[in-house]
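Hi all, posting the design record for the shared folder.

TITLE: backbone redesign
STEP: 1 of 1
STRUCTURE INPUT:
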């Protein structure tokens, strides 16, 4: 897991890059820091999220119907699915 925080050109807006080894690691982390996330979202809005990689059911459920979320799947499995 790795975090990087960035200041954007728009005052009061920030970008956070989170990297996990896989979807299960992202899910475990979210469950572990759930109370902190609730505190964060009490004072901040999630404007957008972009996920890269294979999603597990937890992340598919989280992204389903959510505004401002983009999902990018790996190219290789997508090509194999077309074959």
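Okay, here is what came back for every position:
SEQUENCE:
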């Amino acid at each position: 897991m790795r975090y990087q925080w960035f200041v954007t050109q728009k005052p009061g807006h920030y970008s956070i890059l989170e990297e996990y080894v896989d979807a299960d690691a992202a899910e475990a982390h979210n469950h572990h820091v759930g109370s902190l996330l609730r505190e964060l979202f009490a004072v901040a809005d999630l404007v957008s999220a972009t996920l890269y990689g294979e999603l597990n059911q937890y992340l598919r459920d989280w992204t389903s119907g959510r505004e401002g979320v983009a999902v990018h799947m790996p190219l290789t499995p997508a090509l194999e699915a077309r074959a």
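COMMENT: Helices lie at 23-32, 34-43, 57-63, 75-82.
Let me know if anyone wants the other runs.
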